[in-house]
Amino acid sequence: WRDLLTVLYWNFSGIDSASTSAGEVIRPGYHYPRGLLACVFIILITYMVPLLAVTIVNKPPYESWEDGSFASIARAQGGRWLADLVAIAGIIGNAGMHIAEMFEDAWQLHGMAEVNLVPRIFRYRHPYFQTPWACITIQIVIISLLQAFDFQVIVCIDNFFSVIGVLLELLAFVYLRYSKPDMARPFKIPLSNTMLTAVLAPVFSLGVIVVVASLTGSLVSLCINIGGLLIGVLGTLVAMYRYEDLRYTPKDGHSELIRTMADVVAEDQKQPLSPENSSITNTPKGSSIFLRSAAEASSSNAE
């Protein structure tokens, strides 16, 4: 059951990565709920259809499956071309997960650097592509080190830190619903606070179970997870104590920018999006252009 829970969580993890790119999406309150529901359905299909197919064949029996068994079964049933398609699909799927996770983590680290929660080096972007190259580099180093471990150990390490982040997000979500009920939100779950807490309670409980399962997966994962957590917490506390500039300081005009964004989102939800009536230019980077304009305006007001 421990291995089953950790693998299932790993298979469905990463959906929260979408929140990192909310500033690049036009009308996120409309598109995000539909996109997330579509993702859950697509994930179920991509896992259930191949699993049902190879289970029905069951040659070799599922008890003897190992890495690469799906491709071997496909080759036995359909030939070399089907095995190649299964292998290519696996490569593309893993590459997509890797890129999505790197995108989320890099921009989260970059955002933390902008509000002085981590060293300033993570603020730097590539002069041409505007990518947070320092954040990407540190991730590549960590990922390269993890390649030395077994897959199950990697899953336990990944799940441990991932689920802790999700649990913090859930706690923050519930806290803000109770403490700031009137805050402008692009999308609000249509449930009362009591009902919302009841719905999230089993999710939170499952997250705690995954944390325990990830810790007890093996001695190696236990040591790395505890060591990484202690280094992160203690390192942050020491850095905040010794360096004043590593304490959270909102940017100038940050509150005004949030209010401006909330007003635009609320207005866009009232009317269909079109080049004539949209407050955001209808381009792939439209929201980024809007954010920069709003930031400049709010900074000018602050001055």
What does this entry look like structurally?
By secondary structure, this protein is mostly helical. It is built from 10 helices and no strands. Helix 1 crosses helix 7 (193-215) and helix 9 (254-270) crosses helix 10. The model is unreliable at 253-262 and 264-303 (pLDDT under 50).
List keywords for this structure.
303 residues, mainly alpha, disordered C terminus, 10 helices
Q: Specify the helix fraction band.
A: 55-70%
What's the overall geometry? globular
Uncertain runs are: 253-262, 264-303
Relative strand content: under 5%
SSE string, helix = H, strand = E? HHHHHHHHHH
Write a brief caption for the model.
The chain is mainly α and 303 residues long. Helix content is 69%, strand content 0%.
Helix and strand layout, with pairings?
Layout: H1 2-12, H2 28-57, H3 69-78, H4 80-114, H5 133-146, H6 151-179, H7 193-215, H8 219-242, H9 254-270, H10 286-302
Helix pairs in contact: 1-6, 1-7, 3-4, 4-5, 6-7, 6-8, 9-10
